[in-house]
Specification:
about 130 residues; mainly beta; seven-stranded mixed β-sheet; 11 strands
């Protein structure tokens, strides 16, 4: 089992930055691909970013490329999402997820991830 706890959400204005963090426990963190997803009101949950278990590979949704950066800290067992130049359309609940499969490549599919956090709200006002 893996427990994931997100933090760092809040209310910001368009153009601002925010850093989300996800703390993982319960399983060897270094064996997990980690991802961030988000779900806006009335919409399906969608992929945002992912980082491989060895941190050598990252993947981003087109909508956040060049604005968001995913990183991980093996000493702290955390994965962060640095979000810059935020837009109102970034408003959503952001979820951290973990994939234990160590499959080749990073998946953008929700079904590929085995563990999920409870989410943290990000609201961007215009």
């Amino acid at each position: 089992q893996v427990q994931l706890v997100e933090s760092g959400g809040g209310l910001v204005q368009a153009g601002d930055s925010l850093r989300l963090s996800c703390a993982a426990s319960g399983r060897t963190f270094s064996n997990l691909d980690m991802g961030w997803f988000r779900q806006a009101p009335g919409k399906e949950r969608e992929f945002v970013a992912a980082i491989s278990w060895g941190a050598g590979d990252t993947n981003y949704a087109d909508s956040v490329k060049a604005r968001f950066t995913i990183s991980r800290d093996y000493a702290k067992n955390t994965v962060d999402l640095q979000m810059n130049s935020l837009k109102p359309e970034d408003t959503a609940v952001y979820y951290c997820a973990a994939d234990r499969s160590r499959r080749p490549g990073l998946s953008q599919r929700m079904g590929a991830y085995d563990y999920w956090g409870q989410g943290t709200q990000v609201t961007v006002s215009s």
